[in-house]
Design brief:
With 186 residues, this protein is of the alpha/beta class. The protein is built from 8 helices and 6 strands. Strands 3-2-1-4-5-6 form a 6-stranded parallel beta sheet, with helices on both faces. Helix 4 links the parallel strand 4 and strand 5. Helix 7 packs parallel to helix 8. The chain is globular and about 55 Å long.
């Protein structure tokens, strides 16, 4: 039998004030949408935005980020480094423009007690709501408004809710039990 809490990450430490985007630099992942929204938000002087990744839009991302205040580019990072960046972030941003049924970045953020700002695209609205984060339309104005809301929010409340949702719905034990239940029904 599994120990209670088996497969759980330890309770998260409080995050910093920074926002984090960690994904491929392509149109579907929304990195350019995020940069447009960041510029509109005016948060650059008070909150850092860490952008981790690489891809076909890397040159454009570097060029645009260089003229924006508060944007820090890490370049390509390993999966374990993404985890460390999440641990130091306050909020994870998933500004997807392409349909993703179940983006693992959201579950990883929740497991670390990090709320998520996501676009209203694909499966994201089924995972992210106002309890565990913020949902934006896939346009710069809406995303900028959610960034500003998150920067002004009591992120600790959303963080606790994100971790709670992970523990109730997404731990390896919960997912395994659900899978076994499906097989039992068949």
């Amino acid at each position: 039998p599994a120990r209670p809490g088996a497969g759980l990450r330890p309770p998260p430490e409080p995050g910093g004030r920074r926002f984090l985007f960690a994904a491929r630099f392509d149109r579907e992942k929304g990195v350019l949408l995020l940069l447009d929204a960041w510029e509109r938000s005016g948060l650059g002087s008070s909150v850092p935005l860490v952008i981790a990744g690489d891809g076909e839009l890397a040159d454009e991302v570097r060029r645009r980020a260089a003229r924006l205040e508060g944007v820090q580019l890490t370049g390509p990072v390993t999966r374990s480094e993404v985890g460390r960046l999440m641990a130091r972030a306050a909020v994870v941003v998933v500004p997807s423009l392409g349909y993703e049924a179940f983006p693992l970045t959201v579950v990883e953020a929740f497991s670390r007690g990090r709320p998520v700002i996501a676009t209203r695209v694909g499966g994201l609205p089924r995972l992210v709501d106002d309890e565990v984060g913020w949902i934006a339309d896939a346009d710069p104005s809406s995303l900028a408004a959610r960034l500003v809301e998150a920067a002004a929010a009591d992120v600790a409340v959303h963080s606790a809710a994100a971790r709670g949702r992970y523990e109730r719905q997404y731990t390896p034990r919960v997912v395994l039990d659900q899978l076994v239940g499906v097989y039992d029904e068949v």
